[in-house]
Amino acid sequence: MIGSLSASRKKTSAALNGRGIGRLPEPVPVTLLTGFLGSGKTSLLNNLLADPRMAGTAVIVNEFVLRRTREIKQWDMGIRHMNASSNAYRYYIMRNRAIIKRYYRSLGVYNPVLFGFGTALTFGKELIRLLLVERTVRGTSNLFRGLRDGRKISRDAAWKPMPPLVAAGTAS
Q: How far is it, in rounded angstroms, from Cα 46 to Cα 51?
C-alpha cells in the first residue's frame, strides 16, 4: 500500500509540474492523541512539549464536540469542572493503571510509592465524582473490578510493551 501511495504521489506531482504548480511537499509525521475525559491527555502533552527536543512541534486541538442528546451532570469547581462518567469509564480508568505500571517498569522508571499514591488519588477522584456529581454510590463495583482486573495484568509475566513505531523506510 505504501508503494502504491508513493507511485500515486509521483504521478500527481508530475501532473502538477506540467501545470507549473511544482512538487508536492514531503509528508509530515503526525501523532494523534486521544483518550477518555480525565485520562491525562493534557498532562502528557504538556510534559512532552516541555522537552527541548519538541521545540519545533505544532499542536492542533480539535474542539469539535458532538451534540449531546441528554444533559450530563456536572460539578463546577471554578477553574475546572467534573462531569458525570459511565461505568465503563470507571472500570477502565482503574484497570489501565496496571498497563501504565507495567510500561513504567519496562522503562525502569516505576516508583511503587508514587504510583500507589497516584492510583489512590485516581480512585478517590472517582469516588468524589460518584458522590458529588452523580450523587450515588452505585458504580463503585466498577472501580473495584477495574483494580482486580488490573492486578491480573500486573502479574502477567508474558506482558511486554509494544515496540516503538518506526517511520516507513527506516526499519532495517
A: 9
